[in-house]
Amino acid sequence: MGTLFSTCSCNILAQLMTVRLRFFMCSIYVMCIISFYFLVVQQLYKHQLKKEAPWLMGLVNETQPIQQVHRSLKLNDQLDLLELELQKQLKSNEELLIKLRSLKKKNIAQEKDFKFEEIIKEGNSTSIKPSPIIGVLVFSCNRITIKRNLDQLLKYRPSKEQFPIVVSQDCGHEPTTKVIQSYGDQLTLIQQPDQSDISLVGKEKKFKGYYKIARHYGWALNKTFHGFNYDTVIIVEDDLDISPDFFEYFLALYPILKSDLTLWCISAWNDNGKNGMVAENSEMLHRSDFFPGLGWMLTKDLWLELQNKWPKAFWDDWIRQPAQRKDRACIRPEISRTKTFGKVGVSNGLFYEKHLKFIRLNDKFVPFTQKDLSYLKKDNYDVEFVKLVYGTPAVTVQQLTKGSLSHFNPVRVTYTSKDTFKKAAKALGIMDDFKSGVPRTGYRGVVSFLYKGRWVYLAPTADWKGYDSTWI
Predict the structure, then answer these.
(1) Each residue of 431-449: pLDDT tens digit?
(2) pTM of the entire structure?
(3) Are 170 and 194 in contact (CB under 8 A)?
C-alpha cells in the first residue's frame, strides 16, 4: 500500500516538474520572438524612412519616446498573454495538487482500515506486525445447547477472518450435528473419527468419559494446529457463556503471551470468582501458577511441546504437573470472562451445584487493546507483587471472621503448611484444594481474594521456597 502511494506521488510530482519546465521554456521562447520581432520592425522602419523620406530621419531621434511607448504597449499585450498562460498553468497545477491530496486521503483511510496488533518491543527495537489470526476451537459432544454458546461467540466476534471458529464434535450425536451445521459458513465443523470404545477395567471404568475427552482433545488440537495451521488457538467448551469483551481480552493479551516466555496460557477463568469474592474492577488481571482452563489460549509452540506425550485421561490435571508446567504461569482475570451453564457432564453436576454456578461473569466491555498491559510481564509484575503482599499487615483468620479489625485496608493471612492453608481457605470461603502442590489461583503461593469487602492475601511466609508437589 505504501509503495503504491509513493509511486502515485512520484508520478504527480514528475508531472508538476514537467509542466513548470515546459512553461519556463515557452516563456523564454516567446520573449525571444518578441525581441526579434521588435528588432526587425525597428530596422525596417529606419530603412524605409531613409529611402523614401530622408528628411524624416532627423525626427527619428525626437520620436524615440513615442516609439518606446508604442513598444511598451505591445509588450504589455504580450505580458497579458503570458499572464493568461501562467494562470492556465497554475490552474492545471492546482488540479494536480488536488489529485495528490485526494490520493493522500485515500491512503490514510486505507491505513486506518488495516488493523495492527500491539506494538511489541524487544530490547531497543520496536516492531509492528499485522493483527494475528487466532483460531477458536469449540469442543462439542451431545449437547444441543451448544447453540447458546455459538450464538454468543458469533455475537461478540469482531471479525470472522481474525477469529475463525472451528467446532470439533465427538460422540456422533446427530441432533447436535444438525444444530452446528445450521450456522453454515459462519464456522467450520470437524468430527472426531475414532468412535471406538475404550476398554477399561476395575475402578477406571467409571472414568471412561475422561478418557474420551482426552482422546478428543488430542485429535482436535492436532487438527487445528497442523491441519488448519493456526499459530494460536482459544479453547472453548460447548457449555460456556462468554463476556462481551471475551475476544478483546484474548487479543490484547496475545502479545504478552508471545513475548513473555514465563507464560504458557491466557485463561478467561477465576476459580475463586464467586459473587462477593471479587473486586469491583473488570480491568484487574493477575498472573497465576495454577492452570485455570475453562476458556483458555495456547500457542502452537506449546502444543508441539505437549503433543507427543498427551495423556490418555485427565488431561487438565496432567497439564498442571511440574513436568508440563515448568514453572510457567497463566494470566487470569479478576472477574471471569466465561461461565459454565453445563450442569450435566462427566462430573455429574456435583461441582456445578457446589461451586460453578456461583461464579460471576463479567458484563462490561473493557477496551484492553487500548491499555498498557506490560505490567503483567514477570520482570515487572513480581517485584511489585511481593512488595504489595508482604507490605500489608498480617492478621489472623479469627480477626477476619469476627470482624474485629478497625480498618478496611488489605491484609495478609499467613499459612505455613498444607493443613493451615486448608483450614484458612475453608474458613474464608475459597477453594482449598491443590493440584501438584499449587492452590487454585495461586501465584508464588499467594491466593488473592475479597472477603467481606476487604482485599485479602492468603500467603506463605516471605522466605517461601516454592511449591511442594506432595500437597494434594
Answers:
(1) 999 999 999 999 999 999 9
(2) 0.74
(3) no
Residue ranges of E strands in 42-191: 120-122, 125-127, 134-140, 165-169, 188-191
Phi-psi region of 437 (alpha: psi -120 to 50; beta: other; left: phi over 0): left
134 bridge partner residues: 232
Active-site positions read: 316
Contact 189, 167 (CB under 8 A): yes
Long-range contacts of 207-211 (CB under 8 A, 24+ apart): 207/313, 207/314, 209/346, 210/313, 210/314, 210/346, 211/312, 211/313
Name the pLDDT band for 464 (thresholds 50, 70, 90): very high
Q: Is 431 or 32 the better-scoring residue by pLDDT? A: 431
> What is the C-alpha to C-alpha distance for residues 217 and 214, in angstroms, rounded to an integer?
5
Question: 235: part of which helix (H) or strand (E)?
Answer: strand 232-237
- Asked if residue 320 lies in contact with residue 277, where contact means CB atoms within 8 angstroms, the answer is no
Mean pLDDT of 306-313: 98
Kindly tell me if the per-residue pLDDT of 7 is higher than 70.
Answer: no
pLDDT for position 345: 62
Which residue reads 465427538 in cell numbers?
Answer: 170
List the grid coordinates of 368: 484492553
Torsion sign over Cα 182, 183, 184, 187: negative
* pLDDT value of residue 297: 98
Q: How large a percentage of the chain has pLDDT more than 70?
A: 71
Mean pLDDT of 313-331: 98
C-alpha cell, 272: 475463586
Q: Name residue 435's beta-bridge partners.
A: 438
Name the maximum alpha-carbon separation found in the chain.
145
Q: Residue 216: which residues within 8 A CB-CB, separation 6 or more?
A: 139, 141, 168, 170, 192
Mapped onto helix, strand or coil, the DSSP state of residue 230 is coil
Q: Categorize the per-residue pLDDT at 79 as very low, low, confident or very high, splitting at 50, 70 and 90.
A: low
Over residues 395-409, the mean pLDDT reads 94
Joined grid coordinates for residue 407: 480498618
Burial class (CB in 10 A: 0-12, 13-18, 19+), 2: exposed
Residue 168 phi, psi dihedral angles, 5° rounding: -105, 120
| C-beta separation of 93 from 19 below 8 A | yes
What single-letter amino acid sits at 431?
Answer: M
CA-only gyration radius of the chain, Å:
39
Instruction: In whole angstroms, give the CA distance from residue 110 to residue 1.
Output: 8
CA angle 313, 246, 328 (to 5 degrees): 50
Q: Which three cell numbers stand for residue 212?
A: 474420551
